[in-house]
Structures are given as C-alpha cells and as structure tokens.
C-alpha cells in the first residue's frame, strides 16, 4: 500500500519534476502568482494544494509567498495552503480509498497500517510536512489507515505552522539565512507535537 501511494506521487516528479522546478523558481513562482493580481495569495494556495498530484516545489512557492506578502501574512497563507493540502489528501483517501487499500494490502495489511498510525501517526504526520514527497504520501496513508481526525488535525498543524512561517521568512529575508529556518522547521514540529500529544492524552 505504501509503495502504491509513493509511486503515485513520485512518478509525476520523475516525469515533470525538472520542468516544474525550472518554471517555478523563486522568481518564476512570484511572477506567476503576481499575474493573478489581488488573488495572488489564492493562486499560491492553489499551487500548494496541487502538490498532492503535481510535482510542485512547495517550499519554493512558500518562499515566494513570503517574498510578496512578508513573513507574517505570507506565513499565514503558507500554513493555510499546507493545511488544506493535507486535509484534502487525508479526506480523499479516507472516504474514497478504503476499498482500494483493502484490495492492495488485504485486510491484515490494512489493519497493520491502522495500528502504525494509531501508535505513531501523529509523529509521522507532523515530521513529514518538511520532507519532500512525504507530506502528501503520509496524509494519504493516514486517511487510508483511518487515522482519527482529532489526532490528524493537530499533528498536521504541528508540522504546517513552523514550516509555513519558516519558508515565508526565508523568502521575506531574501534567503539570507536558510539554514536556521530549515533547522527550526525540523525541530519545532517535534516540540509542538510533544505538547499536543500530552494534551490529547489528557
């Protein structure tokens, strides 16, 4: 089941990834969004959502949003795009993909997947948001494995919030200090999820 989901996401990267990287460079993404005038923010969110099925360089889009709107407003837009992307992938697979998952993995395999996401799903979702390819794959697998909404949404937020603001800040600062932003985008989801996990247990 994992291989099928990853293949569905990786194959477009192999076929069109180089083209999208060339067209959606930082400057290219900014110019493309600016073509929509006052709706540039919506175009940015649409690009982040389309990353579910297309090889869109989401961190470049987030940096472009930070460049155009600043780290605060740009960060909020990035978080909204990342959250919507994760929710759509999760909901689509949860509501439409259970039969296919059972056919691919069998009842036992599907049950093992559900056990993994029951025990470690929060960590997987939160930490996957800053990795290439994995955010969409993990969100889809969470939906297929019937991960609970009340766990999925906080975990998605724990990953999306620091990621969105970090890359918006990179764009806003002209990419002068990307190392710190990337390091924080890796560390902050862990700290946020530790706190969220304690609240959920209570």
Features:
single chain, 202 residues, mainly alpha, 8 helices, 0% strand, globular
What does this structure look like?
With 202 residues, this protein is mainly alpha-helical. It has eight helices and no strands. It is globular. The protein has helices spanning 2-23, 26-34, 40-50, 58-96, 98-128, 134-144, 149-172, 178-201. The longest helix has 39 residues, at 58-96. It has one domain. Helix content is 85%, strand content 0%.
Main beta sheet, described? none
Beta fraction: under 5%
Oligomer: single chain
Structural class: mainly alpha
What are the secondary-structure elements, in order, as H or E? HHHHHHHH
Mean pLDDT: 76
Number of helices: 8
Radius of gyration: 17 Å
Total strands: 0
Catalogue the unreliable spans.
Answer: none
Specify the overall morphology: globular
What's the number of domains? Answer: 1
Considering DSSP H and I runs of 4 or more, what fraction of the residues is helical? over 70%
Question: What is the terminal-to-terminal distance?
Answer: 33 Å
List the helices and strands and how they pair.
Layout: H1 2-23, H2 26-34, H3 40-50, H4 58-96, H5 98-128, H6 134-144, H7 149-172, H8 178-201
Helix pairs in contact: 1-6, 2-3, 2-4, 3-4, 4-6, 4-7, 5-6, 5-7, 5-8, 7-8
């Amino acid at each position: 089941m994992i291989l099928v989901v990853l293949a569905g996401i990786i194959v477009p990267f192999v076929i069109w990834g180089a083209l999208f990287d060339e067209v959606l460079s930082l400057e290219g993404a900014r110019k493309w969004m600016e073509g929509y005038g006052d709706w540039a923010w919506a175009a940015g969110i649409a690009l982040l959502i389309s990353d579910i099925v297309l090889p869109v360089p989401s961190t470049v889009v987030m940096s472009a949003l930070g460049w155009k709107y600043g780290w605060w407003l740009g960060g909020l837009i990035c978080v909204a795009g990342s959250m919507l992307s994760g929710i759509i992938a999760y909901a689509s697979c949860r509501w439409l993909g259970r039969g296919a998952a059972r056919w691919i993995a069998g009842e036992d395999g599907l049950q093992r997947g559900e056990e993994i996401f029951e025990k470690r799903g929060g960590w997987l979702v939160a930490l996957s948001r800053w990795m290439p390819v994995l955010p969409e794959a993990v969100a889809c697998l969470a939906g297929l494995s019937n991960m609970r909404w009340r766990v999925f949404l906080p975990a998605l937020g724990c990953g999306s919030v620091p990621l969105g603001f970090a890359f918006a800040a990179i764009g806003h600062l002209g990419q002068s200090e990307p190392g710190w932003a990337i390091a924080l985008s890796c560390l902050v989801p862990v700290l946020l999820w530790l706190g969220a996990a304690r609240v959920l247990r209570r």
